[in-house]
Amino acid sequence: MTNFRKLLSLLAVGLLGWSPLQAQDEGFDLASQRSESQDVRKVPGHVVDHGGIVINPTPHSLEVDAAQRLDISGGVVVKDRRRAFGDELDFLAVGAKGPVVDIDFGAKRAVKAGVKPLSGAYELRVGPKGVSIVGYDERGAFYGIQTLRQLAASPAAAGGKLPAVVVNDYPDLPLRGVVEGFYGTPWSHEVRLSLIDFYGRYKMNCYLYGPKDDPYHSCPDWRKPYPEKEACNIRELVEACRRNRVDFVWAIHPGQDIKWNEEDYANLVRKFEWMYDLGVRSFAIFFDDISGEGTDPVRQTELLNRLNEEFVKAKGDVAPLTVCPTDYSKLWANPTPQGSLSIYGKTLDPSVAVFWTGDVVCSDLTPETMEWVNLRIRRPAFYWWNYPVTDYVRHIIMQGPVYGLDTTLSADDLCGLVSNPMEHGEASKLALYGVADYTWNVAAYNPIDNWERGLAVLAPEVRDAYRTFAIHSCDTETGYRRDESWETETFRLADHTPERAAALRTELERVVRVPAEMEHCDNGLLLAELRPWLVEFGKLGERCLRTLDLMELYNGGDDAAFWAAYVANRMTPEELKAYEAHKSGTMKLQPFYEQGMDDMASGLFERLTGEVPAVYKGVGSFRNLRTTLSKLMFDHDSTTHYTSSVSQQAGDWIGADLGCVRKVHEVNILQGRNSVDDVDYFDHAIVEASADGREWMPLGDSLRGVYDIRWTGEPVEARYVRLRRLDSPKSNWASVRSFEVNPVRAERLGFEVAAPDAAAALYAFDRNPSTSFRLDGSLRFGIPAGTQGYTMLLQSDGAVAPVQVRQYAADGTLLSEAVVDEPFFRMTVSDGAATVEVTGGLQVFEIIAK
Fold it and tell me: What is the pLDDT of residue 801?
């Protein structure tokens, strides 16, 4: 599920000194549609001592008699009064003389036991003489068995001696489960079966099958039957759900090309009939993320009401329908009585459940958002929680606590909640462990305690290593931000102390050990999903440890030794690609490495020159400009981009802090993720400059529909340059690929530069030690009058041919020659020298004249 927005055609306005491009019309893009707050809330809750009893979800009532025990080590006698649970008690040994485990369900028996008259409710009693489980219905008795299963596996039941307990329990929300509704690679059949067992064990009762990339669920093949193999798999999923007392809800996504005629109505009913023959008894229709005539809410409700009469009621054994409306988020829903949600409320059969994602696509569950939608749809909405889904940040794997769910809500506010997980099904179980807990016992939900329990339950043999990985793998980096690394303190170079460094080193040493320790995880499916991230996690720990060492070396003042170690701790292009593809530690560990390296490079430049380097930092109204994401505007790579991750609003701006007041004579900005048809940009904006961040002056006129912006003119004194949004109806994100201020130009250097790639070679003289260029061959540059020497910051690639530096007179006479065998090289300018030549294969970071 994601937001679909129509793009408006924008007329490019050609202005003097600017290079405008026209925005295009129409488009659907997943990555642009997640529009969430960048506020990062702390994880609530506290760890609880459960006395060795681990039960999830948390029971509503649990009484423990510590003085009484039931010995089941010799086996038990099972009395399954309804003969419904023959395969569910495999965790208990059978013994002819053992205590009795009595299992029954039904309204009359439940009343006598004090069980709440609610589907799924049960009582479990463990006493010195035996076990009794009474369910209000079959599902309730099944849940009682799952509680007994967890009790028997708890530390408090060591040696086969169960503690005496009375559990009286029931679910708060009628619908609790999972929607496989993400974009990307659908789960494998093996993972789906594993997850269905997980749902049953933790009392979740619905699984909506709606993977966006299943063509028989969506376009183009929703009208066609599943091929034999896929149909067989669905039949197996239905049966697995039946065993686990989970409703298998098959969803269809026909809206993008549906025709509101009898032919397509017949196609839809025929598809439902095929699914019915595969055992499906619960159905949903998704109208999310579509355009065109399929978005008509009147037609949608007419279809649903007709299906309800002619299919659901006619069959007699089919559950009420569920629908995902096109307006599934407050972000773009029409709030008026003429809006689609109000039309649903007035015309849609009350039995149909209606999905809702909240104020935005990925958002917290709050009373306010439920009140807003419920007033319009005239029923408690069905909350589709887009967590831990990562289809918009596929380089992230979410392993943090489940929080952001209000604990004062009830079934009067929402009929249920389903989690939309990651494409990594096994790795999603940690979050689903929390979702199961919340939806069962809302008021008692304790996020941090649930997370700690989940880690121990899901990977007990590697619990500590898993926890170390998970606590640093919580944040999305952009979009729906999550707290991360809350037990770890990182710092910038200026705040380095021996005490802080020692504390951080201890944690980083744990991080480095995690990949090897996690290889002992018994869950092979989980390990396979996590392994790419685990590998990069370990490498990140190593880089951070070396950064700690570098800070000490930097503070020691040996510039040559420091620079040699510094370049060794930089990533190669291949390492950077892997680092970006599988990220962890985005909130603290990665910024510590990246910012620490930047701080030291800038500090070295200032120490060598006495000048502030031309290293620019992102500033602006968007909170995540403070993070390392803003560096993507200054990396001289137009294929990467900074993105705001929240909707643009009046007064928003994106800018650069130049570090000090400078004479600004050129500004180049590339908006959007491309210059053709991207939706994430300021379509009405102006470039401004300021010396103090308070008084701003315009650089040129306002712009409409312009992606590629260039300003040149008389120099102005400024420390800050920004692109400010002007009046516009747009509510998309904002993205910037490049934000250049005073880019180095050959004509402004005052000397000639020659190299195989002359444009890239200018980075050697841009007064920014964080940039570099690759030299394969010879770099020649002129020596300005009065230059006494050079300091070169280099990195050799270990080529066989040595790096050589030669000085030539104006007539071409060779005056001196040196072999460079260290990355930090100092040279004195020879008398009469006019040109320097550097030859070899190496990275050139900066050539600093003295």
Answer: 67
Helix axes 447-458, 463-471, angle to 10 degrees: 130
36 within a domain of the structure (yes/no):
no
2 domain-assigned: no
Q: Are residues 698 and 790 in the same domain?
A: no
- Among candidate residues 536, 531, 542, the one with its CA nearest the CA of residue 508: 542
Q: Is residue 288 pLDDT above 50, yes or no?
A: yes
Q: Residues of the chain with pLDDT > 90: what percent?
A: 91
Confidence of residue 134 (pLDDT cuts 50, 70, 90): very high
Asked if 253 and 360 sit in the same domain, the reply is: yes
> Residue 3 pLDDT > 50, yes or no?
no
Q: Which of 141, 169, 197 is the last residue of a domain?
A: 169
Identify whether 678 is a catalytic site residue: no
CA dihedral 737, 743, 744, 750 (to 10 degrees): 170
Residue 468 lies in a domain: no
Q: What is the pLDDT of residue 800?
A: 56
Q: Do 245 and 156 share a structural domain?
A: no
The stretch 452-480 carries a mean pLDDT of 96
Full 3-state SS string of 126-164: EECCEEEEEECCHHHHHHHHHHHHHHHHCHHHHHHEEEE
User: Assign residue 245 a region: left if phi > 0, alpha if psi is -120 to 50, beta otherwise?
Assistant: left
Give pTM, 2 decimals. 0.91
Residues 6+ apart with CB under 8 A from 688: 696, 697, 698, 699, 721, 722, 724
Model confidence at 796: pLDDT above 90:
no
Same-domain status, 289 and 366: yes
Statement to judge: residues 435 and 376 lie in one domain: yes
Question: What domain range includes position 148?
Answer: 61-169
838: its two tokens: 């550097």
User: By C-alpha distance, which of 478, 771, 743 is closest to 597?
Assistant: 771
Quote the pLDDT of residue 212. 87
Work out the end-to-end distance of the chain between its first and last CA atoms, rounded to an integer number of angstroms. 58
Q: Is the separation of the CB atoms in 705 and 667 below 8 Å?
A: no
The residue from 716, 741, 766 where one domain ends is: 741
Residue among 137, 169, 289, 475 flagged as catalytic: 289
Tokens describing residue 680: 């994430």
